[in-house]
Amino acid sequence: MSECNLNTFETAWCPGCGNFNILDALKTALCDLKIEPHKVVVAAGIGQAAKTPQYINTNGFCGLHGRAVPPAAAIKIVNKDMTVIIDSGDGDTYGEGGNHFIHNIRRNIDIAHFVHNNQIYGLTKGQASPTTDVGHKTQVQPIGSVNIPMNPILLALSLGAGFVARAFSGDKEHLVSIMKEAIKYRGYAFLDILQPCVSFNKVNTFSWYNKRIYKLDENYDFSDKHKAIEKSMEWGDKIPIGIIYKKEFETYHDKVDFLKDDKALIDLENISSQSLKEYINEFI
Amino acid sequence: MDYNILIGGSAGQGMETLTFIIEKALKRMGFEIFTIRDYMSRVRGGHNFTQIRFGDTSFSSHRDEINGIIALNDETISLHIERLSDNGFIIADESAQYEHKGLKKLPLKSSAKKIGNVKVIGSVAIGSLFKLFNLNLSCVEKVIEELFSSDAASQNITALKEGNNLVDPIYNLNYSKKDDKILINGNDAIGLGVLAAGCKFYSAYPMTPSTSIMNYLASKMQEAKIVVEQAEDEIAAINMAIGASYAGVRAMTGTSGGGFALMVEALGLSGMQELPLVIAEIQRPGPVTGFPTRTEQSDLKFIISASHGEFPRMVIALKNPHDCFYQTVRAFNIADKYRIPVIIVGDQYLADSTCTVTPFDVTKVEINRYLNDDEYIKDKEYKTYELTKSGISPRIIPGKIKGTRVLVDSDEHDEFGKITESSEVRINMTNKRLNKLELLKEELIEPSYYGEEDAKVLILAWGSLDGPVKEAVNLLNNSSDRKYGAMVFGDVWPLPIKLLNEKAKNATTIVNVEQNATGQLASIIMEVTGIRCNSSILKYDGRPISGQEIFNKMMEVK
Ligand code: SF4
Question: Residue A24 has what DSSP assignment?
Fold first, then answer.
């Protein structure tokens, strides 16, 4: 870790929380890919997972609840030389920020989005999240959650995302490998990470997941969208992890000539006073 | 010389093009122009009108009395006839079911039909209009050639000539032919200011009457290399702009009151993260959907206090297209210098009204980004929120200097941007941020002042009422022994108070003129200075207030 200089900071997470492995995996992935910390921005909203940028010495953007995606997308638009990663929770991404999650898929900007999905609200002490299973009892849902849980994998696929994956915080090595693929992917890469919350989610524990998850192996063809959709609907007794769908296509930058061919937007010259004069004269 | 022509019809009748051709041609002939646009929130039907005021002296406002009407339907006549001057004329089709001494029933439709294109009916009317003023058609023809494809242009020019033969002149106008101005509306002037300021990122969600800023910038996107992103909602729009600002470019968003209401949390984010941001808030009557296409100045108190918690911001009310250009550039410079959000405030009246102005001088545009490079960072660890004497921390662009980390947060944070709950840090950081408000006072531009230096009656107004108030004060001083003066605020938050204190001392009557129902400027002035207005002229029907109307109401003020 020291040779790639990604410091560890003291965290505010509960001991045993699934977030630790995700943070470690992120550091390992960046080190393995030899990306310098000052060339990375980790963006987040609000929540336990959203504290990730505080705990890694890359650049960090800790924004508003639910609003991690818009600034991250803009940062990449402005500076394509940066590696932009979003690390935020299920409440932040699927609840408060659902609209941005949806529309950013349509933009296909080259960023990696890691959702720490613990199926619960941690920071506010244990209410249902958009991915909480039906019947899961909490203080606010005393009769159990009655709403149909969101299927983020299927949702991302339905919107045309080109990289859709799931990993488990309890399998760090696998998580690192998927994270690396996501960061390398040209376009919007979505990775839902199953992350046990040891303090407030007494249902979806490490052992609950361990009993159910299985890795997609080399026999699985992740370029087949129909198969991917089928896989995305597997939940319950068996939960697949790995790259569920992957196919590269034109990114946001590819479609805008001056973003594609030129230097990063941040490095472009301002318009000349000659052009400005011409624009003004168009009103003559 | 001061004429006022109303063009009315329903949405979808091509009035916008008709108006554009007339005002542009008149402008090219050297006339001064002030055109207002009154349209309904619908794409077809309803009643829309425009009013082109033209003459040989410059106008700062529209005028209510009209000298001529081009009526594309009968409703136009019945709705506006009251405002027609005694010897005024009406150009209408021969099918019009209306009687009036000034009514010229002309074969507009049949002429257009004869030419083989019913859409050229407007050009027939223009031909007649120009003949009534005895103005030749060369400038109109030129504008039409620039606007249409060659086939459509030649049909329209034939229509012009047809129309020209239908009437005899009533006026005989001389014109200067000195065409040295531009004809522009407030939002396009803001758009030019955005480009002049070197802004590279504009994200917004469409909302009348702010959308035309985005339209203008989008039309220049490729050439000027500015990203114009239509966001999924206003919340995304402002958060994207803040992200772009973090990444280092000048960034902006624009909206109207309803959209701004959605942006307020992120307004605080810009204040807390100390990331420069410019927001255009182009007002329309609220609350909520209100009058989508009409005008009002009712968001001022909301804008100066929007978002929870305490942080510095600057609010600049735009007065006219000239201001729209230069103040937009200034807004970016101030945002960068102090690392704060700056809100420029317009309204539908300013956004959509076109007028003749001296072309903007690009040599007067200065850009200062207040950014630091590796030189500054040498040998020390970069702190995003370094506590300096002034409260302004040196800013660098993330990714440009090896070994640096730019960390920004919405949580309270220490100098490095690390989350903290320390009471000492909290106090230091709050003071650091709020001290910028003190520094901003040095930046403030005092309000414009019109009328008698030692005025006894002082009018107070802000933003786009600049033009109407200026005209009203001239009328007042020309027709009364009382001494009138008017002060119009551009910079409105923090509130500049020097000139106000000075003039208020001498005045026996202070009147606030505002397009809102509660007198918001007067309330802010009262709060900041203790100066109380004795009387108010408030208009809140969504329609703009003219110089004449202010004059009339002022005459009733004791
Ligand atoms: S509350 Fe849950 S998610 Fe949050 S830090 Fe504790 S264990 Fe982790």
Answer: H
The pTM score is: 0.97
Q: Provide, as residue numbers in chain A, all residues whose Cβ is less than 8 Å from the Cβ of B179.
A: 284
CATH of residue A188's domain is 3.40.50.970
ipTM: 0.97
Domain assignment of residue A49, given as a range: 19-251
Total domains in the fold of chain A: 1
Place of tokens 């409105």: B492
Which fold is adopted by the domain B2-164? Answer: Pyruvate-ferredoxin Oxidoreductase; domain 3 (3.40.920)
Interchain proximity A64–B359, CB inside 8 Å: no
For chain B, list residues with pLDDT below 50. Answer: none
Q: How far is CA A186 from CA A73, A110, B482, in A?
A: 14, 5, 73
Whether the per-residue pLDDT at A69 is higher than 60: the answer is yes
CATH of B183-364, one of 3.40.50.970, 3.40.50.300, 2.40.30.10, 3.20.20.70: 3.40.50.970
Q: Report residue B286 as tokens.
A: 């609220």
Asked if residues B66 and B6 have their Cβ atoms less than 8 Å apart, the reply is yes
Q: For a pLDDT cut of 70, what percent of chain A falls above it?
A: 98
Contacts of A67 in chain B (CB under 8 A): 235-236, 239, 266
CATH number for region B448-554 = 3.40.50.920
- Per-residue pLDDT band for A4 (boundaries 50, 70, 90) equals low
Query: Is residue B151 within 8 Å of residue B113, measured between CB atoms?
Result: no
Separation of alpha carbons B308 and B431, rounded Å = 17
Closest CA to A53 of A96, A76, A22: A22
C-alpha dihedral sign at A56, A57, A58, A61: positive
Within 13 Å of residue B304, how many CA atoms lie on the same side as its CB?
Answer: 19
* CB pair distance less than 8 Å for A60 and B405: yes
